[in-house]
Fold:
Amino acid sequence: MHFRRGLAAIVVATATLGAAIALTAACSLTTSTDGLSGGALLHLDATTDSAPSDGSIADRASVPDGADAEGGDAAPHTFPPEAQTWSGNAHGYAVYVVPNGLTWIEARDRAVQGGGHLATLGSAEENGFVLTMLNDRSDAFNSVAVGPWLGGFQDNPAPADEPAGKWRWVDDTPWSFTFWTTGQPDNSGNIESYLDVYVPSGVVGWNDDALGGNGGAPVISYVVEYE
Structure:
């Protein structure tokens, strides 16, 4: 990812993202399996809030599955109050902000410790729901328009796999839908193997990033999915 825009571009993005996020949620998003799908226009505006080295979930705090030991009626899922529930899978999603920044691994650890995992966006509909949550959440984006960490990472890619190969989700959701923003993934500096949200010039989408961010400013937020 190359950052050629300063705060002026972010101001423009912040001023235009609201209507476009609504459009993202209302419209069908482009699905791609080649890592080259496009993004939709958005308007920006977040909640403040730390797993093993291969990126997958080795141990996640248990979340009640809603059934009693004798197979009785399912009870409602219990999520943190800040989480929003998507009807497509009845999972909860919440955005957390760490003003001083955090690495992707630190975000993954915090998500697991809180009883969830970094969000895994396996469909256009789920992706649209989470991106819509970022409307009016500008404090989840840093000074170079990079937003929250998501649960995608590259699993030991070889040079021939770059930039779009060997991506996977932390919970092993199939990597079939993608929503890369314009020009991404690009493996800038040959060090970008972690997934976050990026809004260059108001065009929202996914971005490959370095472990601690690669644009001169740390990534300051992450999205947790609760099951």
